[in-house]
Structure formats: C-alpha cells, structure tokens
Specification:
alpha/beta, five-stranded parallel beta sheet, 6 helices, 35% helix, globular
Length: 175
C-alpha cells in the first residue's frame, strides 16, 4: 500500500525552517490550512494514548496525517483531527534545531518515522531526501525503527520504547 502524507499547517513557525512547506514544494505531502479539509488517517499525535505500531497501517487506509506547528503551541487541543490518533515512540531528532533530542521531531521526521514503522523505509527516505540531514535521521534511529517495525502491536512498541527510555535515564544518571 502506498502511503500518502497530509499535513495540517498552522503556520506559526519559521517559514525558512518549516519542513512541511518544503515537503509541499517537492510534492511529497499535501498541506491544509483548514482542519476540516484534512483527510481521515493515522494522526501522529504526541498526546495520543496509544503508540504507533505496524498494526495501525491498515486502520489509516494508507494515509498519515501530521500537524505542523511550533513545539510551543503543540497542545492536545491542536490535534482535533478525524482519524486514529497514535503517538510516535522514542526517536531522536536529526534536524539542526533539536539534534539529538528525543521526541522533538520535525514534521518530516515524524512522517518518515511512521513510514519506517509501517515497513516503508523507501517512502521515509523519499520524504527525507530534500533535507541535508535527512539520511542522518534514518541512521540515528536505525535500530529503534527496525525494532518498532517488527512489533505486532502498540504494547510491544511500548516495551521496546521502554528499553530506550531506560538507556536515556542511565545516561542522565552518569552525567
């Protein structure tokens, strides 16, 4: 199944650094400026109660939906879109603004991570191609993305994520 990427665009971030606008420019995603226009799909929502897993690929009927907004305005109310809401598991940002920070992904990183979890690494690489740091995202997250993609459901994804969060906590204790 070919994945389609759609983005609800709030326009509250720096246009020069906006990955969603660049995706639109390269015809890799469709942007919507009205929430009512956004199609039904798997909504990547950091406030969702359930983690994204390969099992969700069929639920969204091949449609991934992201919200493009500033991290400062990414509150739960911002994600009121129709669809199956899922949170991405632990992944590390490769973008220049949040490099190395877990869970602080750009829109393109979120969409690419979801594509990998759904088993479509080629789609992820295609989305990331216009960004000079795009391949770095896939390299930094190679092992977790592979492991999440091998999971049967959300509970298995959370168990894998817990391994990475424990490693992060151990690293923080050593500093």
């Amino acid at each position: 199944m070919e994945l389609e990427c759609h983005v609800y665009y709030e326009g509250d971030d720096d246009p020069a650094k906006c990955t969603a606008r660049r995706l639109e420019k390269f015809d890799k995603a469709t942007l919507y400026r009205s929430m009512g226009q956004v199609p039904y799909g798997v909504v990547l929502n950091p406030h969702a109660d359930q983690a994204l897993s390969p099992a969700d690929a069929e639920e969204g009927l091949g449609t991934l939906v992201a919200l493009d907004c500033s991290w400062e305005s990414a509150e739960a109310a911002s994600f009121r879109m129709n669809g199956v809401h899922r949170a991405l598991p632990f992944l590390v940002a490769a973008n220049p603004v949040n490099y190395g920070r877990p869970f602080r992904l750009t829109t393109v990183e979120a969409l690419a991570g979801a594509c990998c979890i759904f088993g479509d690494r080629d789609c992820a690489a295609d989305l990331l191609e216009p960004f000079r740091w795009g391949e770095t995202f896939l390299e930094l997250n190679e092992e977790p993305l592979r492991r999440y993609g091998e999971c049967a459901d959300s509970s298995e994804v959370v168990a894998v994520q817990d391994d990475y969060l424990a490693d992060e906590d151990d690293g923080a204790d050593e500093e």
